[in-house]
Automatic annotation (TrEMBL):
Pathway it works in: Carbohydrate degradation; 2-deoxy-D-ribose 1-phosphate degradation; D-glyceraldehyde 3-phosphate and acetaldehyde from 2-deoxy-alpha-D-ribose 1-phosphate: step 2/2
Catalytic activity: 2-deoxy-D-ribose 5-phosphate = D-glyceraldehyde 3-phosphate + acetaldehyde
The name this protein goes by in its record: Deoxyribose-phosphate aldolase
EC number per UniProt: 4.1.2.4
Keyword annotations of the record: Lyase, Schiff base
Name of the coding gene: deoC
Organism placement in taxonomy: Bacteria, Bacillati, Actinomycetota, Actinomycetes, Streptosporangiales
PANTHER family found in the cross-reference section: DEOXYRIBOSE-PHOSPHATE ALDOLASE (PTHR10889:SF3)
InterPro entries: Aldolase_TIM, DeoC, DeoC/FbaB/LacD_aldolase
Keyword Lyase listed: yes
One GO molecular-function entry: deoxyribose-phosphate aldolase activity
Family: Belongs to the DeoC/FbaB aldolase family. DeoC type 2 subfamily.
Length: 312
């Protein structure tokens, strides 16, 4: 049975009552369950399939002040052909860049099927007016972004102004038009697991297509327990509303082992329906090379070494 939650955000009081009425997160239980899922091993064929799936789920990211058009073009080439010597390696899902680099990425990826995602809304702090955030979003979409990764106003959230956070997400979603909206919770600043659950629901209620853990600029970022809590939130949100939302852990995911732990967690928490780049992404600047090295090791029995692949 599905329920409409349309009136939950009709006032700050109703929204607060709803979010604080969510069941509390058992911190010890969440930590233990995430750790337990991280110990599951997968072997041979399943591991090879998991590596290719992880590659297909990567949002290959560069979000540095020193980003240049050349760096973005090189990253786009790598997203399309992660290992130019091996055409069997799949493409990544997307590249993720700052708004001023969207045009470069769109040109470099034309016809490839790799999406262009752009951070917006005064990433990473979110400290700007709503007008500027909406304009930032609209300009990135006009430049050709397929996906927008926005940050929530953590100051508003932590001071209990949930309605402001909700209104901003609604406004940015409207500015996205056809582009998909990923809402970054910046879980490393949310202080408690209860807040991670509340922020997940808040973002989904406001229209997020995806919920994303982190900007990559704050530690801790995409920890297993936080990812687990967000997966449980999308599962429960689907059960209540009938609407499916994706999840994107991002920040600090560097190894094949990290990525496979995430896939095991997806499978065990929300099931195979989320084991698809349409519903699960891995935001990472330097994971892809490790996936390529492990893939080659599985195929040839030896490591090529990090110098064999171009830099992420
Ligand atoms: O959205 C993705 C993150 O910014 C990437 O973080 P990372 O550099 O720790 O992989």
């Amino acid at each position: 049975m599905t329920t409409s939650l349309a009136d939950v955000a009709s006032s700050g009081a109703t929204l607060r009552a709803f979010l604080h009425g969510l069941p509390g997160v058992d911190r010890v239980g969440a930590d233990q369950r995430a750790a337990m899922l991280g110990t599951r091993s997968i072997k041979t064929t399943a591991k090879a399939e998991a590596i290719d799936l992880a590659i297909r789920m990567v949002d290959l990211t560069t979000l540095e002040g020193a980003d240049t058009p050349g760096k973005v073009r090189a990253m786009c080439a790598k997203a399309v052909h992660p290992d130019p010597s091996d055409p069997s390696v799949p493409k990544t899902a997307a590249v993720c860049v700052y708004p001023d680099m969207v045009g470069q990425a769109v040109d470099a990826l034309a016809g490839s099927g790799v999406k262009v995602a752009s951070v917006a809304t005064a990433f990473p702090s979110g400290r700007s007016s709503l007008e500027v955030k909406v304009a930032d979003t609209a300009l990135a979409v006009a430049a050709g972004a397929d996906e927008i990764d926005m940050v929530i106003d953590r100051g508003a959230f932590l001071s209990g102004d949930y309605l402001k956070v909700h209104e901003e997400i609604v406004a940015v979603k409207a500015a996205c038009g056809p582009a998909h909206l990923k809402v970054i919770l910046e879980t490393g600043e949310l202080a408690t697991y209860d807040n991670v659950r509340r922020a997940s629901w808040l973002a989904m209620l406001a229209g997020a297509d995806f919920i994303k853990t982190s900007t990559g600029k704050i530690q801790p970022a995409a920890t297993p327990p936080v990812t687990l809590i967000m997966l449980e939130a999308v599962r429960d949100f689907l059960a209540v509303t009938g609407r499916k939302v994706g999840v994107k852990p991002a920040g600090g995911i560097r190894t094949t082992k990290d990525a496979i732990k995430m896939l095991v967690m997806v499978n065990e928490t929300v099931g195979e329906g989320w084991l698809d780049p349409d519903w699960f992404r891995l935001g990472a600047s330097s994971l892809l090379n490790d996936l390529l090295m492990q893939r080659q090791k599985m195929a040839t029995g030896r490591y090529a070494g990090p110098d064999y692949f171009t830099l992420d």
